Amino acid sequence: MMRFLTAAVVLFGVAACQPGEPVATKSTVDTDGVRNVISATGAWCRPTPNGAQAGACYLTLKSSAGDRLTGVATPVSTATQIHNMTMEDDVMRMGEMAEGLPLPAEQSVALAPGGVHLMLVGLTAPLVAGQAVPLTLGFEKSPAMTVQAEVRQPVPAAGTAPAAAPATPPADKP
After folding, report:
1. Where are the domains of the chain?
2. What is the pLDDT of residues 153-162, one digit of tens each?
3. Most buried of 24, 82, 108, 171, CB within 10 angstroms?
């Protein structure tokens, strides 16, 4: 019986750590009898070419009682900003969200390409695929938390596939 329980615990632990599963980091605070838990999942940054001065990172945040993301710090850049991208007169514009990013209670807020993202300004080195970037997230009410963001290419959305290579005619046919 003990072997079965040990095996079950080991298998559960291995299953819980399988690649591809989002890793959650949590910050918890109790204020005036209200418990707020903020979770951060799926943190990643896009690789940058040599010489790039800026990079972008993304993740999903959820606050149980509502809060606001007010800032970000990382050792890989000299400054960080919370940015939003919008379309105005068929022109994409990007700007800092100086007041931070509201996190409504019990709603997931996705920071994603083409929208709200974390901008790393003054990179100290290129962001290289396979690295992890520490991002310390600051909040209005909750304690700061540090997440590890994987540097990688974007994953295609569900139901989409990368463009196929053009068909090559068989050698015996022109």
Report:
1. 21-151
2. 998 766 655 5
3. 82
